[in-house]
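Help! Submission page says 'invalid entity' but I think these are all valid:
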Amino acid sequence: MRRLLTSTEGRLTIVLVIVCAILALASDQFLTLANFSNLLAASAVNLIFAVGLVVVLIAGGIDISFAVAASVVQYLTVFALQAVGGGNWAFGFFFAGIIGIGLGAINAALIYYFRIISIVVTIATFNAFFGLLMFFTGGKYIYDLPDWWTHRIVFFEVKTPSGWAELTLPGAVMIVAALATWVLINRTTTGRQLYAYGDNPEGARREGISVGAMTFIAFCWMGMMAGIAGLMQVNFVKEVVPNALLGRELDVLAAVVLGGARLGGGRGSVLGCVLGVLLVAIIQNGLNLLGVSPYAFKMVVGAFILFAISTSNISFRNLLGGAAGGRRA
Amino acid sequence: MTGADRDAAGTGVAAPAVSFARVSKAFGGVRALSDVSFEVLPGEVHCIAGENGSGKSTLIKIITGVYQPDPGAEMSYFGRRVDSVTPAVARGLGINVIWQDLALFPQMTVAENIAFGDILGSRPRLVHRRQMRAKAERVLDRLGVSLDLDARLNTLSIAERQIVAICRTLVGDARLVFMDEPTASLTHSETQSLLAIVRKLSADGVSIVFVSHRLAEVLAISSRVTVLRDGRKVGVYDTEGMTQSRLTELMTGKTFDAEVISGDRSAERAVLEVSGLCRAGEYEDIDLTIRAGEVVGLTGLIGAGRTELGLSLFGMTRPERGAVRLNGEPVSFRSNRDAIAAGVAYVSEDRLTLGLVQPQSIADNVVLPVLGKIVNGLDLISTGKKNDLVSRWIRELNVKVGRPEDPVSTLSGGNQQRIVLAKWLATEPKLLILDSPTVGVDVGARAGLFAIVRQLAAEGLAILLISDEVPEVYFNADRIIHMAGGRFIASYDPRALSLAAVEKAVYA
């Protein structure tokens, strides 16, 4: 019970429940299965991004470039699929994953071999990726996509009085991505090394953890998730638009930080990502249902982040106290 | 202990854990170690004593395989001759080091920090949490300590973190543990429990090598001490019968006469007068007068409220009741800016993080609290005034600096402490509060530091010296106040009582 109140995830759950309760009272459409299935589908892409990003944050890095990298993956995947004559889902996942990993490896290589901090590298690659994409595509949209890619796949559906509730492909992929990330960071030695490296890089290095391996694993995992998120986003919107994902990086970063990941490294969880992404999505959804202007949405999210960070100040103070005030006498 | 550890000659005496002879090491043209021999017996608590730069850490790094010695050295571990050692080989032999900065992982749990070896390795495996917890629990049981295995490390005290660091070495079956300044940031009672653990390990047959600046501890805990000076071995001595002053002499090659300097200042003008000062949970009913030229020593155990009182006098926290007068004027500080303006200076106990801006230059650090005094007519910083001020204080405090433009982080502990002092003296204070000023400072440098403190007092400064090392206040203060549970419980006159009597009263 104490952990529920003291951990970021616990507090976020409480906030989420309160927000849901308020919205359920304010709008009779909110608390319906159909609305939740919509929410889930709309959050899928962001959550796939989020579980990739949280791995980078845990390892003490940051990535600004992943959303435009996902757009690059979309275009390159289209060309790759044309080259193999249309392909299928297996090809799609393979190309999107591999190209995403490749773009992540570019970030990792710049960070590791040139010893540049990740925020600088990824701001640079953010610009480079987006510039190259716009330059070579001329900003052209692509509607002529393989049928399998844009076809809606429904795994499970029920009819409810307020409409269909269903689990579609992006939702299912989101669940797999979240589970895979959870296993990686909680249940494998590699994942625990990522935490240790983000927490105390020098200590980790002295214990024999490879800095290069940590950098590449974190950014390639992010890249793979970005590629898959790009693939799913096309399935959802049925077109490839070069600037469709531009700006998404900050929304996802906000959600992940809201979910308790620390920009200094060593902290963050899949549950936190899920709660952070859901909270942002639910606020947006709720405000929509209430007929509030979409411009108010960012304002409210900003307020929530400030609120979340300042209420976690108590643990922040412990952190400082542990380092500086340990010897008060 | 297994049979293999026994001396092959069958004398029944166990082979030394390490035995090194003719160890030399030069870096470039500088000789860090010349022809040093070193031996630790199984289960022995051994101490390496020496000032900074005497070669202590070079020796440790050679034994643990971080550095290779120059050719000609003879090295053996547990009776086996070894030609060259790498860190991995040393660790495989059961040789471990706990570095001063601990290298722990603050966001991870106690269990993970202790059984950290389980998550190492480049090939990914599944983590066995239960197994890690069991390992951690076994080691904690062995030491007779209980800690919450699931607590994040950053919720633990520094002393508990030390224990976690020790436990980590024991998981790997350590047979020789080096501890670099393990008690530097511990209070007296925490130190006592750490020393109890060291004794337990020693009884288990684990050898411990201590490096500490606190000579009283060195003598209390270790059975032998190897003294190094300028990269050479001065000798190996039994601690039985050794005194602190003799050890200091061996380390520095100079004699320091620790003598009581206490004097009666009751005729002087009162600089600080405090009456009935209270702050709930920190200190209560504090009455204190410090006169011009007087050094008042404030000592006591953990939680006594010494630092808290110091912080209130410096305006960092506000007392709830009571009155403070400075030079006869009633004062009430809203912040430490008010206190600085009124003539109070505070040298914090945590010099490295709170006292100095490490990456900035020596000069910039010195002028930081007095920026207002070195501006020209346009309110911009005047380089000339700044340089005058900096060179004056560097001269007065005899700081050994290369250039004032060098970063503070390039200075030794003792010189850094002088820069902190210089910085606060530049504010021309009337009352100087020194909070544990010698933490991490060499014996030789301490003497120099206190010589400065006495000089300042002679010039009429009122000084409050906070320390948990009784000898420090005994030899450097005019009178000693003993604080416990937030109250002043006794006052001692160094002229009337012996050091042992005061130590007994405070540490009992």
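Support: the input was valid. A stray whitespace character was the problem, and the output above is from the cleaned input. Confidence is low (pLDDT under 50) at residues 313-329 of chain A.
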